[in-house]
Amino acid sequence: GPFLFCVLGVCGCCGALRPRYKRLVDNIFPEDPEDGLVKANMEKLTFYALSAPEKLDRIGAYLSERLSRDVARHRYGYVCIAMEALDQLLMACHCQSINLFVESFLTMVRKLLEADKPNLQILGTNSFVKFANIEEDTPSYHRSYDFFVSRFSEMCHSSYEDPDIRTKIRMAGIRGLQGVVRKTVNDELQANIWDPQHMDKIVPSLLFNLQQEEITERSPSPETEKEKESPIELTERCFRELLGRAAYGNIKNAVKPVLMHLDNHSLWEGKTFAVRCFKIIMYSIQSQHSHLVIQQLLGHLDANSKNSATVRAGIVEVISEAAVIEASGSIGPTVLEVFNTLLKQLRLSVDYELTGCYESCTSAGSKVIKVHEERQLQEAVIKTIGSFASTLPTYQRSEVMLFIMGKIPVPGMYPALGSANTGFEGSRMIQIMLLKSLLQVTAGFQTTNMLTALPSSFLDPLLSFTLMEDAEIRLLVLDILISLIDRHDNQLKVLTDISVLKLKMDKCSRQDNLFMKKHSQRLYRHVFLASKEENSSQGHFQSLYALLGLICVELANEEVVVDLIRLALALQDLALTEESLPVYNRCAIHALSAAYLNLISQLTTVPTFCQHVHEVIEARQKELPFLLPEDVFVETPKIPEKLEKVEGEVLFSQAKIAETLGGSGYNSERLATPYIPQLTGVSCAGLNVSLEEQERERRRQVVERFQTAPFEEIAAHCGARVSAHAKLIYIYVPPPSPSGSVGNGHGQSRSVPVYEMKFPDLCVY
To answer: From CA 270, how far away is CA 257, in angstroms rounded?
Structure first.
């Protein structure tokens, strides 16, 4: 009896001697954990912590000790009470001693996250998220979040058997990563969350959960659907928040793991998920950083140049979507870089298609090329070029057009771009691909100043393609010219019955007049010569008609109208005289001339001119319908096997047209003059194609002699023709004196004007 009393007395004394903070901590725990935290005692503990902040670290250490013991004994009710107490203390206390308390708090959170029980992991995550939202008053120098990044990333990839619990664990991991980012992104004293070691864990974890939504469909209960945020919504919100916080120098580290994830899981080929990811990225980052993402995508495309066509097509599709979004914000320095990379991919794809392999075809293990996949890639690249160009202002589109034109191998002007293994066919395919790209860029192109938008450096090489033997190339060039000139969407109207349509016509501006004054004769000449190509088809002649019609509608003044009529009549003469042309071509040229004169007669509205054109067309309908568009510009043309001599009332009369239009103020003398193709815009007769060829050959010989002949031969050639010293004497010799004597002791002579001198060939070009 006395012994027991003594023991109880000693214990009672020892309990009374325990530190006050421990007693206050013990008192918040009820006898039955289901009763929850003792709120009254919690208020006392909070008041004590605020009154004696130096005790915070001890309070935290003791709570951590109790929590560890309760976890080990599986007393999870008390674990929850301890975490609730810690959360309340964190929310209430903002003082200099908070750092030491936080260390104890993070130790307890770490303990819970390391536990096997999902509920404890979720409990620890929830406490960490609350802590992440607290703005601390004092800096922390030694705190590390590496463990939390790794552990939350693992939870994002949870493979727990029960699907509901697995979803909860993954969502907890996502919220945990979101908390880490919020806690560290603006704290310069913390380890940089943007470092690759962290981004390589965070970003793939988020993408994994975004991807899971496409693999498995959720079937939530109806009552919880409206209340709870879905995993996909949470993941996307977290990803957007992460990207939105990225500064200029952090974009690369945030985007690179996305590229690697798509590579590692073969997600480019499906396109859908990759496009979705980069739409999130482009809309989430600050707009002035958009070009950095485009640069990374372009670099990644280059890095995958020897990967399969489906992978490259997927990257191109992503660039297409991302570039359009970027163009609406900050263009940056990437405009030409985008096109340069895409054109390079076109060239590589052509090489792969023609050679059949990515590497040298003799190397072991070289992959087999699938032609249809390369064709699909080429279409994707061309589409991307068009979609991006459509977002650019006019001046940048003009630059892009010049840039692409500079990449096209033009005979005699630019070197071939095809590799040594592809030869002529490679150059031809590259020409076609780049012209298709150029056609995409010109779609919807509108400018008020054609002269600056289409300089000679662009127009000259483009027109040179209209004379190539390849029919597909010629047709592409005609379509490009039509696209450039058609600024009011009149093409379809011109190709249909124009008598019932209202064409959009503006008065020809001064800039348009200057453009036509400089380039009209070149345009007419190429139209005339293109009509003579034997392998032209229905599409070529329809495009030629559309081009002539649009020139008339968009760029015509009185002088242009006169020259276009002369050109149409010259085409009629061409069809009559060029008997070597196929029958279809001769009929098509007649139909082209008739269709165009019909159009221009209705636009000029001169009654006598309209009457003459109408009479000829009626005569053809009765006698020679195969000389009209209705019978020729169709899939199955109705043409004779042999074209007999065409004459009489079925032909348009140049004399009648000159007479009828001359009475309405048009230049009848010019109308009566037959059209002859000219080399320049100067209106002079007598120059034709053969002279141009002679001039070109002469220049070639001069250049060749200068490049290949030895210096002695060049010097002898020049010396034999003229002595520069003698010419100087002629120029500067004094005039004869009145007495007839000549100065400087020379015989009588006279100065020769400079314009009469004969200079050597090498000095004249």
So the answer is: 18
